[in-house]
């Protein structure tokens, strides 16, 4: 079964510190993609970073990096130098192919709170 | 700026009264998705269009329908809303081509059913 697991309901970090949000996945497809989205209280989903299953290097986008460990089926998000504006819900998602086509399945999310 | 737009941002409807949520995009993407996100839960895909081809998820209730009259617009119709349909409804688009398949989300419509 294809599944995304985020085991941290909430994480707390101080400004300027780094934080790691955990994500593990399960799929039998050799080709897949992993995404991280940020959802502030306003509700919109903001794309942060993408990792393809065949990508040799870990993805990085500014302060965001993805620690991709294929053998362990994990795709943790690392946020360096946290800012107050990083406080939000973070979702890990996987691109899957189902009967209806291409879709994203999401984990349950992790709420990140950044304090000064 | 190219974007995904959802109107209205907040919608209140009465139990059993049909309601339509709209989504438009200026990205010229082939694929448009509708997700339902209940409070403190992950988004759940309801259905999507690849161009004019409609793809329904197996567990999407019949109460939910969708229309895509052209590339830019997609509508979500809830024929007889129940209290359990109160949620955030997110529209997303993707190019559908080979590559990242990144989905671009709109700001969502928060539906309240009274």
List keywords for this structure.
heterodimer; A: about 120 residues; mainly beta; 6-stranded mixed β-sheet; 4-stranded antiparallel β-sheet; B: about 110 residues; 7-stranded mixed β-sheet; about 0% helix; globular
Mind explaining what this structure looks like?
The complex is a heterodimer of chains A (116) and B (114). By secondary structure, chain A is an all-beta fold. Chain A has strands at residues 3-5, 10-14, 19-21, 24-26, 33-39, 46-52, 60-61, 64-69, 74-79, 88-98, 101-106, 110-115. Chain B has strands at 4-7, 10-13, 19-25, 31-37, 44-50, 53-56, 64-67, 73-78, 87-94, 104-105, 109-113. The model of chain B has no long low-confidence stretch (mean pLDDT 91). Chain B has 114 residues and is mostly beta strands. In chain B, 0% of the residues lie in helices and 51% in strands. Chain B has no helices and eleven strands. In chain B, a hairpin with a 5-residue loop joins strand 7 and strand 8 (73-78). In chain B, the strands form two sheets. In chain B, strands 2, 4, 5, 6, 9, 10 and 11 form a seven-stranded mixed sheet that branches. The A-B interface holds A 33, 35, 37, 42-47, 50, 52, 91, 95, 98-109 and B 31, 33, 41-45, 47-48, 50, 55-58, 88, 90, 92, 94, 96, 100-108, 110.
Outline:
Chain A is mainly beta. Chain A has strands at residues 3-5, 10-14, 19-21, 24-26, 33-39, 46-52, 60-61, 64-69, 74-79, 88-98, 101-106, 110-115.
What's the total count of β strands of chain A? Answer: 12
Uncertain regions spanning at least 5 consecutive residues of chain B = none
Number of strands of chain B: 11
Instruction: List the total number of helices of chain A.
Output: 0
Distance between the termini of chain B: 36 Å
Tell me the fraction of residues in β-strands of chain B, as a range.
Answer: over 45%
Q: SSE string of chain A, helix = H, strand = E?
A: EEEEEEEEEEEE
What is the alpha-carbon Rg of chain B in Å?
13 Å
| Protein structure class of chain B | mainly beta
- Low-pLDDT ranges of chain A: none
